[in-house]
Fold this protein.
Amino acid sequence: MTMECREVRQLAEAFVSEQLLVETTHAIVAHLERCPACRVEVAGLRRLKAAALSAFTNTADLAPRPEFISSLAARLQPEATRERLAPWTTWLGMAASLFLVFGLVLGVREWSLSNLSTLLHAAVGDHRFCALDFKLAEKPITLEEAARRFDSVNRRLESIEPSTTTLSGGALRIVERHSCVFEGHRFAHIVLTYQGQVVSLLVTTDEGVWTVPSSFPVTNGFHATAIRGPKHVAFVVSALGDDAVQEVAAALSAPVTHALAGV
Amino acid sequence: MPHADRLFRLAMWLERDRATAEDLVQDTMIQALKSFHRYTPGTNCKAWLVAILHNLRSNRRRANRRVPLVEPDDRIADTVPFVPAVPAGVTDEDFLIALRGIPEHHQNIILLCDVEELTYKEIATALKIPIGTVMSRLHRGRAMLRQQLVSVGMFESSEGAG
């Protein structure tokens, strides 16, 4: 599908807000590669969005008082308990209610595992459409830009290297680093090669409370495992077998853990 | 507490008064606890909380009758004669001054889309308006915001943003 400037201008705002279907987004990216005028327009819209985010995140006058947050937690604790005791409350509702306040009860695990499954599918999709098929909806940006605009952890991921580059199946090499978006999830994406196959390390934000399962189910033909950080999760995804994926993850575990912890 | 900071910033912007904003956020969280059985796990929790916050705020304004609750007339904003380029180097203060310069219902949608990063559908649900209205208000709001940003830059306003 090719697009003209008029169509791109009509869809530019939805494109910048990542609200479009993958096919439409891809068509816009293709148009932008050959149209400097539309690139300027889209860059302007991105500046507007970045300015909004910056103003609301950084303006001290809009920030809550720390005492308010702590008093709110104290105020909500009895409410959560009362909700737990209410006769109509289901087990899941009760646990989830407490999660809203503390984020530490049984309901979190239920919610987090559901969230984890969503993130796993997004990571596998990103590996497939970005690293293998080059059909990503939105053009990737550098990790440095992602660090400036979204999350400083990207800057630390810019320089990590596997703890060992010689594994049982041969050399493990990093061939590409960038930040990309798939299905609304932004990933720091490090592309590696091992045994002649592409392996993706995909890092995204996640504050769920869960421990890394011993293995993930095979998802759309890809094996995956995860490395947990305090506020992020890193997936290692490849069509290689589970043993090879675990081996790559082991080589990445220490540097990625340190990067996610800000060490 | 997840989302408390962002919810407060949104409430503070809407209410322009710290005590009122704190009340609104507290009531939002209490309401969320009471109706958590209606929350669908796996959906956007922040969007759900934003919907509760807006609903509570609308109910309060209706009850207090301080502000007449008329449906915004989008025709007022229909004519945006010229949409200038987005200036480079916009400061946080410039942005907030410019945002205050456009109608509130356009401010809300820009914030929910660009700051809270809700989908059009989530915004439509939170504000109880059709998705087409979300898209048209966003478009008009951004056009007016761009005009305001140019004005703010030209006059180098030194007014506060609050």
